[in-house]
Amino acid sequence: MAASRSSLFLPLSLLLLITLSNVAEAYSSAKLRPSDCQPKCKYRCSATSHKKPCMFFCLKCCAKCLCVPPGTYGNRQVCPCYNNWKTKEGGPKCP
After folding, report:
1. Domain annotation covers residue 10
2. In this structure, is residue 93 part of a structural domain?
3. Is residue 48 domain-resident?
4. Which residues are CB-neighbours of 81 under 8 A, at least 6 positions away?
5. Which residues in the chain land under pLDDT 50?
6. H/E segment holding residue 3
7. Full residue range of the structural domain in which residue 76 is found
8. Residue among 48, 49, 68, 50 nearest 58 (CA)
């Protein structure tokens, strides 16, 4: 009985550790300094063919929200301010 508890403890501990590291990684990308906006936006806009407008709006959003979602597309849920800032027409303001 004791052996089965200890054999269950290790996988559960590893799962908890992985989950906490993912939460810490998401939180660390959510609070940037203004000086961090340029490289984050450069990567965020790297896959688009409309680099100038993407960079303009990404830098504007980053300056306001101090957050840029990870990756080149999607993942907006990581940055609620970035995700919820809309244009007059109701579309997303931030790339």
Report:
1. yes
2. no
3. yes
4. 61, 64, 65, 67
5. 24-26, 28-29
6. helix 2-28
7. 2-84
8. 68
Contact 69, 58 (CB under 8 A): no
Q: Kindly state the DSSP code that residue 34 receives in the 8-state scheme.
A: G
> 84 φ, ψ to 5°?
-95, -5
Transcribe 56-90 into DSSP letters.
Answer: HHHHHHHHHHS---SSSS--GGG-HHHHH-B-TTS
Contact criterion met (CB below 8 Å) for 68 and 37: yes
How many domains does the structure of the chain reveal?
1
Q: Is residue 77 part of a domain?
A: yes
3-state secondary structure of 92: strand
> What does the alpha-carbon distance between residue 84 and residue 34 come to, in Å, rounded to a whole number?
20
The tokens of 17 are what?
Answer: 């550790």
